[in-house]
Predict the structure.
Amino acid sequence: MLPTKFYLGKILNTLLHLTLIAVLVLFVFVLVNQSIILPLDSKVFVMNDVEEYPIGGIQGENPVSQTITASQEIARIGIKMATYGRINPGDLYFRVYDPESGETYHEEAISAAEIVDNNFHEFTLAQPLPARKSLYAFEVSGITTTQGQSIGLWSTRENSYSGGKLYYGEYETEGDLSFYLVGTQSIRITSKILMSIGLSILILVIFIGYLNIQSRKGRSANHV
């Protein structure tokens, strides 16, 4: 009669193998899931999606601005805004400019009522901004002081973006806005995702093969 320790060892060994298989299956599932969620080709080359508190409210001549680095052409800029759960009256002014010379490259007015709470509002530039080493800047301000209007821009309390700085009015402040930059060139991420999935499947196949070999060895030992 086989000892109890033998059966306990077999049970623990089986549980260990099942746990490892579950971990590998979960790992593969996460990678496949990411490959479905992420776009295969993306033109977003900066994503600073952070939100600790909304800076504002923005009214009248009270701009909030962020300097940015253009490692490639900029076609669109998205900014995460807050409405504090209400529909705000009045208009907002968006401008992209050179922080050194003050030259304006793009400007437009939008209705504050269009802003969706805690979501990115995307601005499409009239002409893409060329890549360059010197900084660009964008700002959001209120065209007039409108009673009841108080749009906020989501930002961090500490610096989260190394390519620029945050300004409230004329003064530099800690933190950065929550924003993204969209270029004109697609960034290929397909190959990286497919390589990760293929590697995970290969590891899983090798591990299942190893378990089969160990199982056969165990059966052979029992027949001896």
User: Anything to note?
Assistant: The radius of gyration is 27 Å. The mean pLDDT is 81. The first helix runs from residue 4 to 37.
